[in-house]
Structure formats: structure tokens, C-alpha cells
Amino acid sequence: MGVFIVVCWILTVLYVLLMVAYIVGWKKQPEFRLPANYEPKTTITVIIPARNESAHIGMCVSSVLQQNYPAHLLELIVVDDYSDDGTADVVRQFEDPRLKCLDLAHHLPRDKKINAYKKAALAAGISRSNGELIVTTDADCVVPNSWLLHIAAAYEQNQPAMIVAPVVFFATGGLSRVFQMIDFMGMQGITAATHALNMGNMSNGANLAFTRKAYDAVQGYEGIDHLASGDDYLLMMKVSKLPLARIFYLKSKSATVTTLPQPNWMSFLRQRIRWASKSGKYDDKKITATLLLVYLFNVAIVAAFATSIYNIHLFFLGAVMLGAKTIIEAIFMKPVVAFYDRKWTRPYFAFLQPLHIIYIVLAGFLGFVGKYEWKGRNVK
Fold first, then answer.
1. What is the residue-wise DSSP string for 325-357?
2. How many Å apart are CA 139 and CA 359, to the nearest integer?
3. Which DSSP category does 281 fall into?
4. Over the stretch 42-92, which tens digit does the pLDDT of each residue have?
């Protein structure tokens, strides 16, 4: 019992120090400003993989086509991933010469076993692209009008091989949606902080850009196409190993993509299990160590409360750990929530902490198992 208590205190101190680093990293990450009188020169291809997204793809495509970006520099490719709800029909209603709609089935051998359909859809779209810069987003996203202007400006100023940019959920009510919004903003804040502090790289495929040159240099998704998840992070890890390759974080409200939270608790858990399923594949010791610390800290809190029936002192230990987690995370989240204009979520933060701990422990464990259902497919 004494060893367990000591371990709990060590994990708590390390976790608080980690969050302090994130607080510093978020402040250190500068907000990008679009240069005055900026005129872009970069050709961009936006790739949108879509599976059964007829309810959302119209708004997504419309928001991309309405960009205040030169028409002759923009190409949009939607890749229909075996949809059976008329997704492709919605896309083809747009009569715009910049838009292409591809059928993934026409780009895959019939006898080839596929586990990573999203990567296959992205690869198919990229193979038909003409842009110097590839930008990816998801079919349920809406992008701001100056999205591509900011991405192009960041690229032309800094010449990175890859650009990581923010994503936020639509402001909707309901406990599960509020929980997802807070959790996701936290992950986005950590993404910005880790890039600023060189503590490892994180990304999200809903708002990601990379050069076609870098993509070709790492042979695209080859070598990671057996994994269903990780089209963003695992590609980023390949790109980061290129000589002199730079990954740039674009902290800008005008470059922030908005997407939908999952409609219910079960779909949310499945999504997070899918994300967690690639955690064992990280080729980054910093990220691996961080994830392990976070997971063990949350497991220790659960263990402290669960075993307090045998020793009341463990209940107080669990309460101290929970309090430390709540306070330090609230300090970190305050400027992050302000950046994303979601200040109204603050009163929910402390109330949802116990649920957040249980979710981390459960999703982490099930993600390690690596089996889940996503968009009608059973994935291993």
C-alpha cells in the first residue's frame, strides 16, 4: 500500500509539471497574422474523403468553393468511400470546374484486402491532384472563408513540409456534446503547446496541409496503410523524418475548421477508441511517454477511489489527485477556451472531471485492444 501511495504522489507531481509545460507552450505559440495586401501564389488541392456523409458534404463543399482564394489556384477533390446514401450525388450537383468527385471503388483492386479505407481514399485523391500543396479536411467540416489564404501564407512564409491547424466543434447543447467540446479543445490546446515546445508533434486530418513533394518523398501512406487510423499523425511522423523537413503549427482563428461532435456517447467512445488504437504505433518517445503518464495518472485516481473501501486514506489521496487535475487543467483551459470562443463551457469543466477520467481509462484500454466499429465497418 505504501508503494502505491508513493507512486500516486509521483504521478501527480509529474502530471502537474506536464500541464504547466502545456500552459507555457500555449502562451509561447504565436498567433499567425495574414500579411497586408497578401496575394497567394501556391496551387492548392483540397482532398475530402467521404463515406455516407450526404447530410453534411454539401455544406463542406460549399464552404471550400466559397474561399476567397484565387479560383485558378484552387482544386477540390471529393473521394466517395463506398457510400450508399447518395453522398456522390450531392457532390455532383455542384457545377464548378474546380471540383472533381472520384469513386474509391474505381481506384482499388477488387481482390485487395483493405483495412485503411480513409488512407486509400486520400491516396486516390492525391494521385489525381495538381496542387503544390495538399490540404485535407473531413466531410462533416465547415471551413472559414480565409482558411486557404492563411494556410498558403503560412506555407509561403515558412516553407514547411507540413502545416497543422486548429479544429473546433460546433457550439451545440447536450451533455455528451459539451463533454466532447471541452475534451477536444483540450487536445487542440495540447497540440499547439507540444509544437511550440518541441515536445512531440500532434495533428488532426480535419485541418492538415502538406506539400506534394513531401508526400511523394515518403511514398505517401505506404508502410502505414495496414492501420485503419492515423492518416494524419502517422503520415506526419514519416514527413518529420525527411532531411530539413519542418512542421509548422498555424495558430489562427481564421484558419480554424469547425466540425460536428459525435451524436451520442457510444459513437463518441468508438471515435476515441479509433483514435487511441494508433497509440501503440507512435514512433515518438516523447509522445509515447506523455500518453503513458496521462493514462497511468488517471488509472491511479480510479484505483485510489476504488480501493478506498479498504483504506479511507486512499479516498483522500484520490480526492487530492482529482483536485490537482481539475485545478491545473482549468488554468490551462482558460486561454484555450477563450481562443475558440467557447467560454460558456467553463461552468461544466469541474463537474465533468470524473467522467473525463473514466473515459480516458476506458478508451485507452479499448484502443489498445484495437477492435472497434466505425461507419458500418468492423475494424481491427
1. HHHHHHHHHHHHHHHTT-GGGGGGTTTTHHHHH
2. 26
3. G
4. 999 999 999 999 999 999 999 999 999 999 999 999 999 999 999 999 999
